[in-house]
Amino acid sequence: MTSSDDTPRLPSHATRSPLEANGAAHDQAEHVPPRIPPYIPPHIPSKIPQGARIVVRTDAGIDERTGRRTYRDFLGHVVSWDGTTLVLDRDPSADGRRAAERVRIHAAQIVRLKPIPERRARRA
How far is CA 110 from CA 52, 60, 74, in A? Predict the structure, then answer.
């Protein structure tokens, strides 16, 4: 195909994006990359027994004041683990300041898992 000034031109279907070629306007639809499964660190086991008492260390980001990486620990019993999300019944704090709670922790946040023995029974 040539125009009146004899400059070679590509056919209109060759200059359109795949979205435009399928009838969708380019400005109406953004390219969406295929869904990539979340990254699961290799140090996390594929199976964690329900009821196990563990401590989970999570990455809490960088401290704005010091610039150092910070961590947050959760101690409790495993409710479920599907390979991507850990559901934990968090123990109350030993001094009674924090009540027991159920928390959900994404695998990508987990830095370390460690089994912990049950607390000793308190003497009356």
Answer: 17, 10, 10
How large is the average pLDDT for residues 14-32?
50
Q: Measured between alpha carbons, how far is 38 from 54 in angstroms, rounded to an integer?
A: 23
The pTM (predicted TM-score) of the whole model is: 0.61
Is pLDDT of 26 > 50? no
Cβ–Cβ under 8 Å, residues 84 and 38: yes
pLDDT tens per residue, range 34-90: 555 555 667 788 888 999 999 999 999 999 999 999 999 999 999 999 888 999 999
Angstrom distance (rounded) from CA 87 to CA 52: 12
Dig out the tokens for 81 from the structure. Answer: 């683990």
Given the DSSP bridges, would you call strands 110-115 and 101-106 parallel, antiparallel or unpaired? Answer: unpaired
